[in-house]
Design a protein that fits this description.
Helices cover 31% and strands 18% of the residues. By secondary structure, it is α/β, with parallel strands linked by helices. The chain is globular, with a radius of gyration of 20 Å.
Length: 330
């Protein structure tokens, strides 16, 4: 059976305690635990079973490789120690028989967004960014509809409209929503893209010098670049606003989520792989659900596309579309 591997790390000590079903970890000295975790070697946390393609019935399995670093260990993305841990995890994955490695969270940011990790391993590596980007427009349309909003009458604001996520969503949604507000530090680039074209949506570009009042009319705000998140005044956005944060680390803190009970925050999409997927431990999702970056690794495995598909800073639009199509296939 074909195998993929996925390298991940805990968001914090509570995440680790929940994943290991050991609440006692939460009661121990966090500084002591943090300093101890840093020196643990990567290991196989679990095996993912039950993934079966709807297209041809083939089954694959996954190896979840845990690196016991938490975000406070990884503030410097040039840190060679952290990079060495992810490389060690990648080599463990290849020794365990995986044909491809997926990188999650900070693992996807280190080593020039996977380039150095791929160079250090004998099997291909992917950050999963192509599918993460490719599935975002579909998630936006679904969440609007599930919250009683007609996309064709909805206003969407994209913060970071010339970044890869923002630009892809602009292309995919320009004829499917009622209005789009676009913000980018590269105002000229937005204007050049729009040109004299006519779209179904009413599209208006904004520069950083404009007042962010356009955010207040939005039904959904997509954060494609975290540097623009401070423009969102959570106390002033209209009732029922959806805030879709595509950044990592996340743009808001836990206390921000409690400011309003009528705002829906979404931190990326959740994907249900085909078959009866079981990760055999919890990482905050309902049973069987996966992050899009995990799902891309599964899709590549189904397709025998054992290549470093999504590495580096840039994402190809065609690759994002291809991933979305292959996901639907399986």
């Amino acid at each position: 059976m074909k195998k993929f591997a996925f390298i991940f790390h805990p968001h914090d000590i509570d995440f680790l305690a929940d994943g290991f079903n050991d609440p006692g970890l939460k009661q121990k000295n966090p500084k002591l635990i943090s300093s101890t975790l840093k020196w643990f070697p990567p290991f196989q946390r679990e095996k993912v079973t039950g993934i079966k393609s709807d297209f041809d019935g083939q089954q694959i399995e996954g190896l979840m490789i845990l690196v016991t670093l938490i975000p406070e260990h990884m503030k410097d993305l040039n840190d060679k120690f952290a990079l060495s841990k992810f490389v060690e995890a990648g080599r463990l994955a290849q020794d365990l028989g995986a044909s491809i490695i997926g990188l999650g969270a900070y693992a996807a940011l280190y080593g020039r967004h996977g380039v150095d990790i791929a160079a250090a391993c004998k099997i291909p590596v992917t950050t999963g960014n192509s599918y993460t980007v490719g599935v975002t427009p579909e998630v936006i349309l679904k969440v609007l509809k599930s919250n009683g909003k007609d996309p064709e009458k909805s206003c969407i604001t994209i913060l970071g409209a010339t970044g890869i996520v923002g630009a892809y969503c602009l292309q995919a949604l320009k004829d499917k929503v009622g209005k789009m507000n676009l913000l980018s530090s590269n105002y000229k680039r937005i204007k050049e893209f729009l040109g004299a074209k006519k779209f179904k949506a009413q599209i208006k570009p904004y520069a950083l010098t404009d007042k962010p009042d356009y955010i207040l009319e939005s039904d959904l705000v997509l954060i494609g670049n975290g540097k623009y998140a401070p423009l969102i005044n959570l106390l002033k956005v209209k009732k029922g606003t959806i805030i879709y944060d595509c950044t990592y680390p996340k743009s808001f803190k836990d206390q921000d989520y409690t400011l309003r009970d009528d705002i829906l925050f979404i931190d990326g999409g959740a994907i249900l792989p085909p078959g009866n997927p079981d990760f055999h431990f919890t990482f905050g999702f309902p049973k069987g659900m996966a992050f899009p970056c995990m799902a891309e690794t599964m899709i590549l495995t189904f397709e025998d596309m054992f290549e470093s598909y999504s590495i580096g800073r840039s994402i190809d639009f065609v690759k994002a579309m291809t991933m979305d199509e292959l996901a639907k296939k399986h």
